[in-house]
Amino acid sequence: MPFPNTVNYNWPVSFPGAWASENPRRSVLAWANGLRAGDGGVAVAAFAWVQADGASVLNTPPSDATASASASASVAAGAVSAIAVTSGGAGYVSVPTVTLSGGGGSGAQATATLANGVVTGIMVTAPGTGYTTAPTVTIAAPVATPAAPDGFVVREQQGLMTQYLQEATMTIPQGFMVTLADGGDVFCACADDAARGDVVCASITDGTITATAPGADVPDGYVATGWRVALPATTGGLIAITKAAS
Fold it and tell me: Region 34-59: what's the mean pLDDT?
């Protein structure tokens, strides 16, 4: 081994999931049994969410409690006279679209009212004409908005190789302990070019990372994480991201 002839002023570039500095760090708090990889395991160097049981961790957000609302229409003199809510549903964050179809007529329109994520009423705004039977009322399903991930899965050599002659893994098997970083500086790969100060976004399907300019829309299928790019790189390169450990 040759004698070293360079000295790094700061930490050298490491591996995805590794800490990038000795700045203050913060991890997600857990109860006595800690956080553990959920069904199918957890990918290191990606964002993850604590599931509804408070202990399992996955690279996807927990399923939100949502349910579609339903309603039935009444017809009088060939027009829609009223619409009654039969089930208010759950998990609505915006007023859903109401569509009326069938019944032999046309032109009927209605709007829903919403309270605490539940459809509480439907007002007929246009009764339509020519209805011989009650039209079918369709209320758009609620669209779940995933919360930001709870943290970033840091690399602590807790992966387990389960295949013959396997040389490396970035998966923590189901049931193994997981440490989620909620602050500090970490290395990770980025799917797109990343500039210093960009907003770090996490995929809601696998926790992988992309970056967007401050103020830009978050790409479909991603959520903002609260982290920012500290050390930039081009597409596919290793970047460092940061979040204040306050």
Answer: 95
How far apart CA 40 and CA 79 sit, in angstroms, is 54
pTM of this structure: 0.71
DSSP track, 54-66: SSEEESSPPPP--
Confirm if 117 and 90 have CB atoms less than 8 A apart: yes
What does the angle CA 92 – CA 144 – CA 147 come to, to the nearest 5 degrees?
120
Domain ranges in the chain are 18-62+147-243, 70-139
Percent of the chain with pLDDT over 90: 71
- CA atoms of 195 and 231, how far apart (whole Å): 8
pLDDT in tens, 185-207: 999 999 889 999 999 999 999 99
What is the DSSP-derived secondary structure letter of residue 81? Answer: E
Cα dihedral: 78, 81, 86, 92 (round 10)? 110
Q: pLDDT at position 217, please?
A: 92
* Cα 217 to chain centroid, rounded: 15
